[in-house]
Amino acid sequence: MEEEQLRSILKCVRCGTCRSVCPIFEELGWESYSTRGRMMIAKGISEGMGLDEDIIDCINTCTTCGMCEEMCPAGAVPPDVFEKIRHELVESGADTKAQQELRENTLSTGNPMNEKGSRLGWLREKRDVPEHAENVYFVGCLGSYRYQDTVLKTYDLISGLDVTILPDEVCCGSPLLRTGSDAGELIEYNVRQMEEAGVHTIIASCAGCYNVLRNEYPEKFRVVHITEFLAENLDKLGLKRLDIIVTYHDPCHLGRANRIFDAPRKLISAVCELREMKTSKENARCCGGGGGVRKGYPELSRALTQKRVAEVPEGVDYIVTCCPLCRTNLEPFCSVPVIDLLDLLEIAKDQNTI
Question: Which of 56, 126, 139, 333 is deepest in the core (most CB within 10 A)?
Answer without folding.
Answer: 139
